[in-house]
Write a structure and sequence with these properties.
Number of strands: 2
Helix content: 55-70%
Structural class: mainly alpha
Strand content: under 5%
Shape: globular
Distance between the termini: 35 Å
Strand order of the largest sheet: 1-2
Number of domains: 1
Length: 382
Amino acid sequence: MFLQWLYHSTGFGLFDGRLFRAGIAMLLSAGLVFFLMPKYIQLLRRLDATSDFDKNNNAKSPPIMGGVLLVIIVEIVSLLTCQMNGYTISTLMVLFLFSAVGAIDDIAKVRAKRLIALGKLKAADYMDKADGISSSLRLGLYFLISFVVAIFCYKFIPELKGNLTVPFCPISIFQIHLPNWAFIGFMTFVIAATANGTNFTDGLDSLVSVPIITSMIFVGAVAYIGGNFIFSSYLHVPYLPGCDELFPLAMSIAGALLAYLWFNSPPAEIYMGDSGSVGFGAAIGIMFILIQAGLFLPLVCVVIILEAFSVLFQMGWFKITKKIYGTGRRLFLCAPLHHHYQKKWEGRYPSKQLLNSKIVWRLHLISLFALTISMVIFFAIR
């Protein structure tokens, strides 16, 4: 909004340009993270804001709740650089509300760890990680928030008519159209599921950051082109007036996460926590729906999808086999997927840190390949 005010005050067209505003958003977010994160880490260390704990009561792992600062920076930068419309308001609302739920969960984890240190909670109940608030309550809040926002979007974004772009199929030939009730249900599920899947992915240093960044690059490109009538017509992309305001917002998230990698790359100085992974995951879900690319989400966010489905399949297969054989069996050595490879490749590398880095970088490469393939399919093959 600030850059829009500068444009109207000065008449200087540069301040109204989407590319300029997206660049400013990315640089400003990254700069603020670089400047504020060291001070924030020191503050969290003084508060002992960590959920990790060992049996000797020597809990000195990096603090959690790094996502709180990231979300605050993204919200402020987006308010400065984006024009507020249905697209940006709904996305910022989802980011804030889901991050708030994640922050409550993070605080509950820190509190549980402190109770163990005081002897008021058994370490056996802690299992090396606090559970925070119950999973059923979290999921309930995810779906409730997603449902309310889905109704808001359907009411205040005229272009949101239940259309879904199909991979490999030009929009002039075929688009999936869902009735109102089905589309609201689909949107609710995608937002909540992506938030949960992103949370599962945040299990190793820097693992979740790259999938979020690649998702924002895809969303930013599609939003910029989809909001321009000439570009969208030439590339056969759905024309969505106003959706190009998601471009600066997406670049704000990408810039913040790029700077965050400086502090979260192995060995991490700080963890994002649920306050970041849940909020940014929900933002991914709603942004893909808003640009009518919901069916591309599994392609772009393949790492997040694999992590989430590994948990679902593991739990489902264990329950089914327990009913059949009396003893539960597992599809993976451990879930989510990155933990499976930690166990599978244990002893293959000289240290655990090297093993984790190998897993993370291979999954990063998959995210980059997925982004490239998705861009080609969306803009060229269709």
